[in-house]
């Protein structure tokens, strides 16, 4: 039996202050980025009151980013040194009107706190700290979305070839549709991430893609050659190695080596990350160094709207949607998450018919009829018009014995025959047991009434096809 | 022309204009010599021919429709359109499907063609087939070829691939073209000599128009295979 995972603990550090949060892989990289002129705020829910107390002090004239706040007062009152942080403090989520509006617009359950919703909007490219970005929630959400989407396809279209199945998964649950979903939710993105940004804006960086593990799959040893030479991959190897959408899992880029630390830092034991950061910042302040964001952002007129920025934006938006699903699962449970996925992802229309492309449709149909022990297919002319004219039309039907398998109209006999064969093949591949077919996760639902619950919990096996017609 | 085809009334006209219902199946397929071309002299005739009555489904009057309590009639005369791929043919339904078990099968998925313009069903075997020499149905089958036959086939093909072409070998041994190609492949030099070099030489002579037309044709075929046209 499977042990029940306590997923709700995954987001616990937002609500409960964790003292031992130093075991964090990005801590060394973070230290350099947190070096600012002054004390950096500790980002914990429990330290919120201390921030309010601190904010009573007169703020420095020159912020660490060089803004003269006496001349350009901030739009809202921020805790000191907020702009040194890579992402806004979780406490500020409660003051964000955008976030509250988003929460209401999505009809999210009140069990999901605004802090968690704010965290779903922080991409790993904005904040590399996995305790504050949405990586964990997005990973959880992607598994849930992909599970429900693949289950739905498996039950409703049991004969889909694997390539078409991958295309359908990409079309329904891939980054592009999730990006559109996020856009339809009215998500706006911040121009650049930072601690002073409104919590209700999606924050991602165009400079660094950020590291996030989002899916299962193996990195092939020849992945570089596949990408370089555009090698074909067999369907079997896609199933074994690649991710849920049949895409190659690329090798994680080697992490940039942490900058040489001062000797005393190396000897320090692993204490709490934030305290360590504080000490670092204080030392930097004494040295008068300014190391925050050492590389200026490489924005050029061409960097906006390029292929790469669009890709990064799409990825960030998609991860946000996944993270919202993950947050729903963590706070509200399985059924709510499934309802959310059903309402927002599975309800979208995808024209499965257009995902097919054939090479030799007549041959494939003949193979199909031979395998299923039907009579061999015969193309017969049903009707025609204008054979000698400029625009003739032929209507051809494909028959197996006396049964018509498909029909197609074309300008030549050959074209009509191919169309009829493709129609017959699509009719075979797109067989569906009907809209009301139950998916395996329906069994887990608890029915309201006793009788209903019993009926729902018994599982009748669905139709599973014997396999692909042509091994590709 | 497509518009003309898709008009049910025009089909009806086609039916009415010609002969009795007994020869319905032949009526649908006009032989090429009977293909009508429009000329100035035939304009009046064609115009008269296009003046067609409404579809019978619109004309049929139920006997007691005049009385206020009479039964209403449902007119079902949809415009012709390409069939949907989501309507699975009866033969493609798996054994476990409830649609197969239901008795509706014979009614919903009738084995004979019922076209819109001819309510009577047409015998399937009377419809002309489209010749395809690769199709297993249209090629004669000889499943009793022995190992020696295959060896002989290989020997002949490799000895003189020009004389013993795939088609001639298929006819000689009574098997399909595909089977011959599965058994033996001519050498690369023969393939180049027959299939590559002449075509390359011909391609050199193409002008820009022909090249463009060939490209268009290739592109159309790719679109067809993707189901875009």
From TrEMBL, chain A:
GO molecular function: double-stranded RNA binding; ribonuclease III activity; structural constituent of ribosome
Compositional bias (Low complexity): 73-86
Entry keyword set: Mitochondrion, Ribonucleoprotein, Ribosomal protein, RNA-binding
UniProt-listed PANTHER family: LARGE RIBOSOMAL SUBUNIT PROTEIN ML44, RIBONUCLEASE III
Composition skew (Polar residues), residue ranges: 47-58
PROSITE patterns associated with the record: RNASE_3_2
Localization per record: Mitochondrion
Protein name, UniProt field: Large ribosomal subunit protein mL44
From TrEMBL, chain B:
Membrane-spanning segments: none
Gene Ontology, cellular component aspect: mitochondrial large ribosomal subunit
Database matches in Pfam families: MRP-L20
The keyword Glycoprotein is annotated on this UniProt entry: no
One function term, GO molecular function aspect: structural constituent of ribosome
Keyword NAD (UniProt): no
PANTHER family hit by this protein: 54S RIBOSOMAL PROTEIN L20, MITOCHONDRIAL, LARGE RIBOSOMAL SUBUNIT PROTEIN ML58
Record protein name field: Mitochondrial ribosomal protein subunit L20-domain-containing protein
The organism of origin for this protein: Apiosordaria backusii
């Amino acid at each position: 039996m499977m042990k029940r995972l306590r997923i709700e603990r995954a987001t616990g550090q937002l609500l409960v202050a964790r003292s031992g949060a130093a075991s964090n892989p990005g801590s060394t990289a973070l230290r350099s980025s947190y070096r600012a002129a002054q004390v950096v705020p500790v980002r914990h829910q429990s330290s919120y009151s201390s921030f309010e107390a601190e904010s009573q002090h007169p703020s420095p004239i020159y912020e660490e980013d060089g803004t003269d706040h006496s001349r350009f007062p901030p739009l809202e009152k921020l805790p000191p040194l907020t702009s040194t942080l890579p992402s806004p403090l979780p406490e500020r989520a409660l003051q964000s009107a955008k976030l509250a509006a988003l929460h209401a617009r999505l009809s999210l359950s009140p069990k999901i706190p605004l802090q968690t919703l704010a965290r779903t909007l922080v991409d790993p490219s904005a904040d590399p700290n996995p305790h504050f970005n949405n990586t964990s929630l997005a990973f959880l959400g992607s598994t849930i979305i992909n599970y429900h989407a693949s289950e739905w396809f498996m039950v409703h279209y049991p004969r889909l070839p694997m390539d078409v199945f991958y295309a359908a998964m990409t079309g329904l649950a891939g980054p592009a549709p999730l990006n559109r979903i996020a856009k339809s939710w009215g998500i706006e993105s911040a121009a650049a991430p930072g601690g002073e940004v409104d919590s209700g804006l999606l924050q991602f960086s165009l400079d660094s893609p950020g590291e996030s593990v989002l899916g299962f799959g193996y990195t092939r040893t020849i992945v570089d050659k596949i990408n370089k030479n555009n090698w074909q991959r067999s369907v079997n190897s896609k199933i074994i190695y690649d991710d849920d959408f049949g895409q190659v899992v690329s090798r994680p880029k080697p992490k940039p080596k942490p900058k040489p630390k001062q000797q005393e830092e190396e000897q320090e034991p692993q204490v709490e990350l934030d305290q360590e950061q504080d000490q670092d910042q204080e030392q930097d302040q004494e040295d008068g160094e300014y190391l925050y964001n050492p590389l200026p952002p490489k924005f050029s007129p061409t960097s906006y709207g390029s292929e790469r920025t669009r890709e990064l934006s799409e990825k960030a938006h998609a991860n946000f949607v996944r993270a919202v699903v993950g947050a729903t699962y963590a706070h509200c449970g399985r059924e709510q998450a499934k309802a959310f996925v059903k309402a927002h992802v599975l309800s979208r229309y995808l024209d499965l018919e257009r995902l097919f492309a054939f090479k030799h449709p007549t041959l494939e149909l003949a193979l199909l009829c031979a395998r299923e022990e039907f009579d061999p297919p015969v193309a017969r002319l049903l009707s025609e018009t204008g054979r000698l004219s400029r625009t003739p039309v032929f209507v051809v039907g494909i028959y197996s014995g006396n049964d018509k398998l498909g029909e197609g109209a074309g300008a030549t006999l050959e074209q009509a025959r191919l169309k009829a064969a493709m129609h017959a093949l699509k009719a075979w591949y797109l067989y569906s047991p009907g809209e009301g077919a139950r998916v395996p996760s329906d069994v887990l639902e608890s029915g309201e009434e006793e009788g209903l619950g019993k009926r729902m919990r018994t599982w009748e096996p669905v139709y599973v096809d014997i396999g692909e017609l042509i091994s590709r | 022309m497509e518009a003309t085809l898709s008009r049910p009334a025009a089909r009806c006209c086609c039916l009415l204009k010609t002969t009795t219902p007994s020869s319905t199946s032949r009526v649908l397929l006009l032989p090429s010599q009977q293909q009508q071309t429009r000329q100035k002299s035939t304009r009046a005739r064609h115009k008269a021919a296009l003046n067609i009555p409404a579809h019978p489904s619109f004309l049929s009057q139920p006997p007691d429709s005049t009385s206020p309590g009479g039964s209403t009639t449902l007119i079902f005369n949809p415009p012709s359109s390409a069939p949907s791929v989501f309507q699975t043919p009866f033969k493609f339904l798996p054994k476990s499907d409830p649609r197969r078990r239901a008795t509706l099968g014979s009614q919903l998925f009738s084995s004979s063609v019922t076209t819109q313009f001819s309510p009577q069903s047409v015998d399937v075997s009377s419809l002309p087939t489209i010749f395809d020499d690769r199709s297993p149905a249209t090629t004669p089958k000889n499943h009793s070829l022995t190992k020696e036959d295959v060896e002989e086939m290989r020997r002949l093909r490799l000895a003189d691939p020009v004389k013993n072409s795939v088609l001639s070998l298929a006819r000689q041994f009574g098997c399909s073209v595909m089977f011959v190609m599965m058994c033996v492949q001519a050498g690369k030099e023969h393939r180049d000599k027959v299939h590559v070099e002449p075509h390359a030489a011909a391609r050199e002579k193409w002008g820009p128009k022909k090249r463009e037309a060939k490209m268009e044709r290739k592109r159309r075929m790719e679109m067809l295979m993707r189901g875009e046209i």
